Every structure is written in C-alpha cells, then in structure tokens.
Automatic annotation (TrEMBL):
The keyword Oxidoreductase applies. This is Retinol dehydrogenase 14-like. Pfam families: adh_short. Keywords: Oxidoreductase. SUPFAM superfamilies: NAD(P)-binding Rossmann-fold domains. InterPro entries: NAD(P)-bd_dom_sf, SDR_fam. Belongs to the short-chain dehydrogenases/reductases (SDR) family.
Length: 308
C-alpha cells in the first residue's frame, strides 16, 4: 500500500510539473525571405533558438556576441539546424558603449537592410561593473541595447515595416526604478528586476517615438528557460539551479516561441508597445504602464550613454 501511495504521489507531482510548464508553440509558417535579422547574444539559449527559427523561415540572420569562437560554433550549428547558409556573426560587447558604437558603424556600412532587431542578450544580477562604470546588469540589459537600437533606428525606418523585440522577464514586478540611483548595485536579484523593468519601459517609449514611422516595438517574456545564465555563479549554486530548472523551466526552443511570434506574427504587428507572454499579449502591473516614467527613463538613458 505504501508503494502504491508513493507511485500515485510521484505521478501527481510530475503531472503538476508538466501542467505548470505547458506553453504555446508558434506554428504560423510566414516566410522571411529577403529580410535581415540581427540578434544580440544569438550564440546560445533563447537567442540561438530564435536564430534557428528565423533562419528556417528564410531570413538573413546575423548574431552579435562578444566571443568570436562561441559565435563561429553557434553559426555552424544554426546553419545545420535551419538548413540555411544565410547565417553570420559579428563581434559586439554590450558592456562597452564604444564597442556598441563601433559595431553599429560597421553594421551600417556592411549591411544595407535591417528588418528585425532582437535585443536578446542579457546578464543576471551580479555585483560587477561595465567598462563605462555602470552596473553590469543594468549596463548590458538596458543601456547597451538602448544605444544599439538608437544608432540602428535610421536603418530600421528605411526598411519599414520593421520590428524591435526586447526580451524581458516577469521579475520586473518585484522592483520599481529609482531615478536617484538608476545605476544601482543592490542585491543581485533586485538589480536584475530593475533592468527587466527598464526593458519594458524602453519598448513602450520606442513604440511611442516610432509611431507612424513603420517601426514597431515589443517586450517579449520567454518565461523561465533552461539557459546558461548560471555560469556566472558558484558551482554549488549552479547545481541547485540545475535541479530547479529541470523541474520548473522550459527548453530554450519553447521560450523562443514568444520572440518568434513578436517577430513574425501579423497579430503582434498591430500591438506595438505591448508585452507578450506565451505567444499572446499579457497585462502588465499598473506601475509598468506609466508613460511618464518610460519617457523619463528614455531621457535619462540618453544622458547616460551620451547620445546627442
């Protein structure tokens, strides 16, 4: 009898886990032939799976990351999985604003079109600093992408209709921005939460600024995915998180579905400035829908990255 109860309890546990991890799969087969896509951090995780999905649809895909060796390996794997040779990489370090500026100059010189920009690369909350003196999490997750998008925005407008997808996370709801200390260095988790909230405000303000100009903007939440973010932490922490991720997270391929939805779907095209979860629009907390805060963050970010 004890064995029977154990089996029933185990089955119930795994069924609950499966139910918690259920996610939609984007099945629309819209082609992207002739379109150019740029994905930051496209060498691993959700970014890599997004690259595979968009290359499979015929897009010219460029992944941007700071490690050339990892990028070359990822490009080979993406080509095999997507059965496309139209995949390339460029070097970009989002923790260095000079690198971002140089990258944009090179990209605009080499690439004559840009139709989809996926601001995917991200850092977990770690107590570290960028080359420009910003906390790494806020500097990479928000400021690096802020400068990148602004410098590439003229090309996006030229190639309209075009889209900008910025990855965020549901953890945004646990923190609010402090404009007296935007470059915060709080507890790592809180720093991460603020950077993800900044991603949402950025996406909303970008949608407002580009309204009627052929560029649409989306904040995409891939959910809790089995990515490699734990590599920045201790061995013990990684082991514990591997167990937790095995139980509660979803594969990166599934997490990428919402990003692909925002990049491809005709439905999403009508909802610029929206927040998307599980391949559908979702409701944000009221404080994350404050247009005044979004505008204030945009102006503050312009000053921080010295964008004229």
């Amino acid at each position: 009898m004890y064995l029977l109860y154990t089996v029933i309890a185990s089955l119930s546990f795994f069924l609950v886990l499966k139910w918690m991890k259920r996610r939609r799969y984007f099945t629309e087969l819209k082609r992207l032939d002739g379109k150019t896509v740029l994905i930051t951090g496209g060498n691993s995780g959700t970014g890599k799976e997004t690259a595979v999905a968009l290359a499979t649809r015929g897009a010219r895909v460029i992944i941007a990351c700071r490690d050339p060796e990892k990028a070359e390996k990822a490009v080979r794997e993406i080509k095999v999985q997507s059965r496309s040779f139209n995949v390339f990489h460029m070097e970009l370090d989002l923790a260095n604003l000079r690198s971002v500026s140089e990258f944009c100059k090179t990209f605009l010189h080499k690439e004559k079109s840009l139709h989809i920009l996926v601001n995917n690369a991200g850092m977990p909350g770690i107590l570290d600093w960028t080359d420009d003196g910003f906390s790494t999490c806020f500097g990479v997750n928000h400021l690096g992408h802020f400068l990148l998008t602004n410098l590439l925005l003229p090309r996006l407008k030229e190639c309209a209709p075009s889209r900008v997808i910025t990855l965020t996370c549901s953890s945004y709801k646990y923190q609010k921005l402090d404009f007296q200390d935007l470059n915060c260095n709080l507890l790592p988790f809180f720093t991460y939460c603020r950077s993800k909230l900044a991603n949402i405000y950025f996406s909303q303000e970008l949608a407002r600024i580009t309204e009627g100009k052929g560029v649409t903007s989306y904040a995409a939440d891939p959910g809790f995915v089995q990515s490699g973010w734990t590599c920045h932490y201790s061995f013990l922490f990684r082991m514990v998180m591997q167990v937790i991720m095995w139980m509660f997270s979803v594969p990166c391929e599934i997490g990428a579905q919402t990003v692909v939805y925002c990049a491809v779907s005709d439905e999403a095209a009508k909802l610029s400035g929206g927040y998307f979860v599980d391949c559908q629009p979702a409701t944000l907390r009221p404080f994350a829908r404050d247009a005044g805060v979004a505008k204030k963050l945009w102006e503050a970010s312009e000053r921080l990255v010295k964008l004229a």
